[in-house]
Each structure stands twice: as structure tokens, then as C-alpha cells.
Protein: 17020_t:CDS:1
Amino acid sequence: THNYNGHIIGLDLHFKHNSIRILQIYLSTSEKKQLHAKIQEQIILLCNNSNYQLIILSDFNSVPNPHQDRNPSKNTSIPESQILKCLISHQFKDIYRFFFPTTLNFTFSCSTYNSRIDQI
Structure:
């Protein structure tokens, strides 16, 4: 198992011909940029082990595509956080968008806006 300051919890599963690493990641909106950078470094270290297939469950409190994943939508499709940009550049797929590329659905709602801040 892996743990980083309560922000990353990981579990390694080993099967006969395959190993899977599952990471649960939480980033608070109140965290400092320096801590976000350290957490991103830890994620990259855990991702770079090529012996594992990786599944990331996340509450990044940011969205991969603000135009599509926020309501009201934003005018940009650029990911809101460096961590999301990094995961996309490493060819990670957002499972919800993989199966529902145009469907609007949200994981957080309040009286003024909705967003899809949780991803797998």
C-alpha cells in the first residue's frame, strides 16, 4: 500500500500475469500550490512504475474540460490543474468521457454551479 500525507492512498494487486496499482487521490481547493506540486511529483513517481496497470480514482477539485464539465460552462477546454494536464499527457483516459463523450453530468452541485470534479 501507499500513502502520502492523506492525499494519496494506493493499493497494489498482483495476479499471475498482471499487476494493478489503484490510487485514490484527493486535492483540497484550500491546499497551497507547493503542496499540489509535491503531490503531483508523488503521482508521477507512482505512475512511472511500468510493471503496473494503473487506475486512478480522484477528487482533484478541478475538471479536465471546463467547457464540458462545468455548468455554466467555461469558454476553454484546457484542464484546470497541472495534475490533470500531466495525466492527459501520459495518455490516461477519463472513463466517464470514454463512454459518454458528450453527456453532461456532474459530481458536485450547489445553488450557483455544477461540476464534474471526480474522475476515474
In short: The radius of gyration is 15 Å. The chain is about 25% helix and 30% strand. Residues 2-119 form a domain with the Deoxyribonuclease I; Chain A fold (CATH 3.60.10.10).
